[in-house]
Fold this protein.
Amino acid sequence: MPVLWLFLVVLALTGSGFFIGRQRALASAKGDSRNLHSRLPYYGTHAAISVIVPSLLVMAIWLFVQPLVVSSAAEAVLPQALLTADASAGLLMAEVHRVGAELVDQGVTGPLAALVPAGTTAELIPAIELYVANTHTGHLWMSIAVILVALVMGGLALRPINAEFRARNTVERTIMALLIAAASLAILTTVGIVLSMLFETINFFGLHSWTDFFFGTTWAPNFRGDSDLSILPLLWGTLYISLIALIVAVPTGLFAAVYLSEYAGPKTRAFAKPLLEILAGIPTIVYGLFALLTVGPMLTTLFSAGGLLGVDWMKGATSVLTAGVVMGIMLIPFVSSLSDDIINAVPQSMRDGSLGLGATHSETIRQVVIPAALPGIVGAILLAASRAIGETMIVVMGAGALAKFSLNPLESMTTITTRIVSQLTGDGDFSSPETLVAFALGLSLFVLTLGLNVLALFIVRKYREQYE
Amino acid sequence: MYDAPSLEKNVDQKATKIAAKDVQVYYGDTHAIKDVSVDLLANTVTAFIGPSGCGKSTFLRCLNRMNDTIDICRVQGDIRLDGEDIYDKRVDPVQLRAKVGMVFQKPNPFPKSIYDNVAYGPRIHGLARGKSELDEIVESALRRAALWGEVKDRLDAPGTGLSGGQQQRLCIARAVATAPEVLLMDEPCSALDPIATAQVEELIDELRENFSVVIVTHSMQQAARVSQKTAFFHLGNLVEYGDTTQIFTNPIDPRTESYITGRIG
């Protein structure tokens, strides 16, 4: 395992860099650390960082690039006879990779015709030989390069160390660079996700007309190649279920927040608030089970034929209402916790002013506290709405799978998220519009929730400026 | 050193509005107010002075039961408004606060329009029978608070957009519009500049015609300028209570003298 050994060598060099840096600084200060610009460990840390960061960077880049170079070299010597037959270059290279990596792990060098495991295609042996040889050479050069970089950078870092050297400031800069790297990684990942969806979406619109996707009225994927793939019935289901969820969650969550922040004593609050927030920690699949096993059958006993109400409105246990109610329960802690924080942020002087004029507690809340907190509460509701739109598990288990336009909340419908799951988890070809439509759906969903989140953040931020 | 109050001080024949007797206030285990007895007169400005933490604001908040909103606060003793015990079980603190209005240290207009701020109290208590009557109440309250001229063209603008001094006068107008009998003011000028302070002080003097005004202040000059009666609090005790001129020119208690001459506080 040359990589592991190389890593240990770099660590050892880092450690010695730390001690040499420390010693150099101490020697330059004539043994008294009070004469130094920075505290002693900073000099060591400066040297250690200068060794480990560039050398690991070189190692990471090398490990990423080397297989690409080695593979393309091996691919060049693939026998043309095999290529023209039924096996593609990709399949042949997979075998080269598999056998080659095995041999590299065993540390084999030189001619290896005898060592190749049984069952390997004989014609591939030259390619495998080249692969193994190149990999070994690559690792050797990588070790040399990494150790060289470590030594050179360490030397460069050690040279300026003396009593006046500002090691504290250089360490500070390194830490800032680390934090920036972490922040950019998160942002770049988001950009990457959006771009990958964007490219697949463009592929999809190359295969399927965009007018049907955005303005058609039927969702009927099939594998004959004449599918109707329209987002509108799915969007309708999504928005309908989200609306029911919000009708359940907003009043309940808001009233809970008002009770917790305005009426409850410190003891009740300390007990009830965490209890309410436990609801937020329940995995959505568990809510889905609750929808499937409890709420659905309960609604069936009320509304289906032969049910308690004697009406025949509901055909099966899955319905918009089932999913909406359960999703609403899921959103209650979300709304209440955010609203609670916002209501608490309303200054006490507002309440005093209202109470001092002879208003009752609830008049104060209705006419002063809630209006003052309203923009923040609206923001909380919009955030809850974007969670509802993006929710998957509850609708998979509670809402059914029929894409249609209907106003009856007791019928089953389906949402964008559940269709993404079903289009991608089938055995469809990855280049067919029936599969690629998932990316277009995902991007539409992303744009929808992003818009809601931006709106919510905008409203919340505008509200925050009021009391500052 | 002290400006002589501009109005004549014949307060002796005035009726007692609020009578407090042996009032004790506890915050948890802290004894914040000890044995305070005081008679506050009608149509008089009474100033509470004293060093920080002496209990003057706490005592002020007892007079309209604002201390009820603080969980750990307990009030004992006897406080009567027009002879009626305000801590009696039958008294509704909400009704009481309509009669004993309050203006706070920091201007706290509601995030509503200027009109709605002033109309807040009358609407809650149903003081106006129609829109035109409400308009009249709002206008007269704003006139009383010397704010009408500045805001009459923008009654729909938010109250939070006014300047600090205007906001405080808006809060006074808001309190006046509820038609209280007593007006409690907790350091109403501490967040204001000297010009706004002068306007508010002038206003307080005019309010005396219709209300009893009780004002807590850290400024002894202000107490001397606006009040006819002054009470000096120290460490939760009411040390001395008397005519403002007497307190500032001829104090009886040595602690009062030390405070007004700046030796303690």
